[in-house]
Structures are given as C-alpha cells and as structure tokens.
Amino acid sequence: MAENTITATDGTFSELIAGDKPVLVDFWAEWCGPCKMITPILDEIAGEYAGRITIAKLNVDENPQTAMAYDVMSIPTLIVYQGGDEKKRIVGARPKMALLQDLGEYLT
C-alpha cells in the first residue's frame, strides 16, 4: 500500500467517514489496471494535502459489504465523504490535474 494513504475495511469504514474532515475513499481491486494507475497519484495528493483530506483505499474484493452498501458498480470509484455523508463521486481513472480540479473544494 502507498505510504500516505490508509486502508479502509468493512469494519472500519463507518468510523472513518464520520469525521468533519473530508475523506476520499478509493474503491479498488488488485486486478483493476486503472486502479493501479491512480494509486501513486492518490498517494501524492494524500501527502501534499495531509491535514486537509484523508485518502483511504478499500479493496472491494476483500470488503464487499461496504462496496455493495454504497452502490459501487465499477472501479475505480472515488467517493468523498464528510460527516458520514457522500459529497462527491468520481468514477474512473483521471490524471492528477483532473483529480485536483474535481477535489478542489475539499483541498482548501
């Protein structure tokens, strides 16, 4: 796993997304090529914006309950949560600049 992101599980998910600070959860799987492409990008963003946003990765094969509960139908799916509520959903891999633009309001 990358050094600046954290690992989410079915057991830790609810507590992880409950805080006031935004949390971006990357729903991914080991076999997913686009998921692997964005992993280093998300790690960079997590490091650059530490303290402003938390970036977590949830393996959908190992944690199917959470993926099903949040209607994750394709991966990678990136969902921003704040206060336990879904605030933004991004489906598919994007380059770093596009992700930063999509996440702009949560990185200030």
What's the short version?
By secondary structure, this protein is of the alpha/beta class. It has 4 helices and 5 strands.
Describe it.
With 108 residues, the chain is of the alpha/beta class. It has a single domain (6-106), classed as Glutaredoxin (3-Layer(aba) Sandwich), CATH 3.40.30. It is 32% helix and 26% strand. It contains four helices and five strands; from the N terminus they run E-H-E-H-E-H-E-E-H. It has helices spanning 13-17, 33-48, 64-69, 96-103, and strands at 6-8, 23-28, 54-59, 77-82, 85-91. The protein has a five-stranded mixed β-sheet with strand order 1-3-2-4-5. A hairpin with a 2-residue loop joins strand 4 and strand 5 (85-91). The chain is globular. It starts with 5 loop residues before the first strand and ends in a 5-residue tail after the last helix. 32% of the residues are buried. The model has no long low-confidence stretch (mean pLDDT 95).
